[in-house]
Amino acid sequence: MKKHYILYLLIFLCYTAHGRIAWGPEVGLVSAGIKSSVATSYSTQSLSAFKAGLELQSRINPNFYFRTGLFYSPYGYKVEKYNSEVYIGMAEVPAYFLLKTGLPCKPRFILGAGLLAMSPVHENDAAKNNQFPELRQKSAATSSLNFGWGLLAGIEMPRGVSVKAAYQKTFADGSKTTFHQYSITVGYLVNKLSRK
Predict the structure, then answer these.
(1) 35 bridge partner residues
(2) pTM of the model
(3) What CATH topology corresponds to 21-188?
(4) Alpha helices (runs of H) in the chain, residue ranges in sequence order
(5) What distance in Å separates the CA atoms of residue 22 and residue 67, rounded to the nearest whole number?
(6) I need a surface site. Which of 1, 10, 48, 194 has the fewest CB within 10 A?
């Protein structure tokens, strides 16, 4: 098994060295919430927080790229009825296709769309204890792997710095519960992708 991991690492490093894969950190601000068809009798508000992770891009051709990575992203809601907050931290893995205009040596506009998988990795006491009876279905929906879709747009500078705005939506519990997020992030690709 260890030999397989070493082989995967060598392939990744080879592609990186030849400009086929670029990687780097990405951080930003999000407004994210959870909505459920069973929680309609009172008001809930989305939470604002930070998002961070590692982005990977693979060049398909000079204007078409594949984007993935691993991100930590918060979701939750403020419950006015109880004057409290439910907070769930999610690990996200996107699978997006990107279209970049122009040439790599100049500023480029980015448009992207794709699928998303996420799973909970952290939650506060309100989410763990299901302390709000009306929200138990929401909490139960966060205990599994969830899938959805997303859109993004932004600009990328020649030195690898990018600014992106994105929207993503994922579904749980037979689509009775949805997770939604608006984000603005800043990223930096450590190595430049090949122009060939």
Answers:
(1) 178
(2) 0.78
(3) Porin (2.40.160)
(4) 2-17, 125-128, 136-141
(5) 10
(6) 1
